Request: fold
Amino acid sequence: MKACLNWLIGSLVAVLAPTIASAQADIHNAIYTPNQGGSAFSGNVPMNEINAHAYRHFQKLFPVGTTNEYWFASADGYQVSFQKEGHQFQAWFDKHGAYRYSLQYYPGKEIPRLAGDLIMAKYPGYRIDVVTEITDGEKTFYLVKIVNPISIKTLSVSDGKIDLLEELANAGLETPLISLRSYP
Reply:
């Protein structure tokens, strides 16, 4: 009986060994290559452990031109930091992969015309420095840093309304700023 079992195992190994060896040599490229188009993918979590819904939503919301993706997983969900068209972005997804909101950072000269005109009308003599655009897919608002030789202000701009969030003394500038429209 033991001899029969040894003969059966030996026969299976002899028949299956070439099949297994050729299957291991038959390597196909993955559907997603992390460095496709120059975009590097990295994170604190392996790609195969990222929620598929979060990854699909990310690809749908930001379909082309993203580079330097960094995925971060936490108990609350997923955050991806990336660059697109020269701007830094961050997007958040819940633990089930649903899109929550995203941030985009850019220089003041690129603020949309309506928000820029509103700020310059209320704060003449200030220069729009940095803009953080926050959107949840339905509503967008802006956190805007404006400066002049005396102070630095942080504003919230949404729906034609401006709220002052913070005001600091500006001791670092020695030359006065000229209040020219620096946005499109």
